[in-house]
Amino acid sequence: MMFNAQALKQVSQLLKSFPSPGRRRVLRSWRDFQQLPVTSREDIKAYASGGLRHAFNITATSGSTSSRMIIAHSRQAYEAHLGRLVMMYRHAGIKPGVLCLNLCSYELNSGGRMMETAFKAAGAGVIPLGPISSPEKVHEAARLVRLLKPAVVNAYTNQLFDLFSVLGRRHSIRRCLVNGEPLWPDYRRRMEKMGGVSIHDHYGAMEISGLALALKAGDDSMRVFAQGLLLEVLAQPGEASPTGTGDLLVTDLNNTSMPFVRYRLGDRVELLDRRGALAIKVLGRTQESLLVNGVVVDKEALIRTVNNCLGTPCFFFLIDKHRLQYYDKLIINVAADRIKPSVCQVVVKALGLDNCVELRKHEGTLPRTLNGKIRYFIDARTKAQ
Fold first, then answer.
1. CATH 3.40.50.12780 matches 75-221
2. Which of 70, 72, 86, 115 could anchor a disulfide with 55, C-beta 3.0 to 4.6 Å?
3. Which of 51, 213, 186 is nearest to 118 (CA)?
4. Could you report the average pLDDT of every consecutive run of 10 residues in the chain (385 residues)?
5. What residue spans in the chain does CATH classification 3.30.300.30 cover?
6. CATH 3.40.50.720 fits 289-384, yes or no
7. Do 88 and 202 form a contact (C-beta atoms < 8 A)?
8. What is the sign, positive or negative, of the torsion defined by CA atoms of 104, 107, 113, 116?
9. Residue ranges of the chain that CATH labels 3.40.50.12780
10. What is the rounded radius of gyration, in angstroms, for the C-alpha atoms of the chain?
11. What is the value of pTM for the model shown?
């Protein structure tokens, strides 16, 4: 969204909703706007603790990476979010009469309900199953697919692998929308081959709902739908990026219940022009790293490396101290039916973290967040100290 007089007026109105008098300033120019401090998760948590006013819709994160965060949306913001989702789904080919199996969360937050409402507004029917975070739920989802024959699945990343491991290619599903982190190309192609489906990445966050969608399966960039949002990209150390590559900031111009002004989502992105339309590539998280024995290790790179070696998301990392507490241990817990000695050697070599990596056989189900996503990292070092 271009920054113009109307956007300037809307941001000024948002600033009046902040509890701190120091934030209630008049904006007269783009430079005034750029002087506003960047906000983060900590700012939102502090605001929520002071009480939420005039909230029409409440969502919450799962708390898998830090403590749970509550987000309140005004009615105007909710309707803008819903409108963007409807537009995305229609661009992705969701037509009246299509039946969709919705595997996104209903229990923890209203994200799944908002998606269901958007599918219905686009004319689609919805099977509201919610997360399939256990073998029993996966088989229940497979039975529903065989019985009701939906053409679309709306899911989180790991759920599709679980579902198509049971269904194979004999089913009615033709299209899948994947929420959360964008899929790695090799992993996407593997699942598309497993299920015989087209998979579309959907990029967004609980704070602002949907933001972008891959219109064609396999697109390396996603079409941006920024109605009601103001987007900025900052280069290090915080100045506007001349190349369109850097940290993504989002201002929700409609949310007076809980104002998001220059809110750092935590992703590094690249904004592009694709045939006259704004597109986005998500390059990774800005702060997703671990310190293992003094070496900074990127979490995304760890997951990608192990997933490429094993071929499936069937593992999680436990970071712990050696029993004598001389150094850190990175323990990769792999599902019992997938671990093999030859694979272990490949993984350890690929990670390049000699002497501190160990693979263990994991019995039972993988740890998951309340949203049903795999909880890839458990850091037990603080307990060992």
1. yes
2. 72
3. 213
4. 68 71 63 84 76 78 63 91 94 93 79 91 95 89 97 88 91 91 72 91 88 84 92 80 86 88 88 89 70 68 80 84 64 82 65 71 84 79 48
5. 289-384
6. no
7. yes
8. positive
9. 75-221
10. 22
11. 0.75
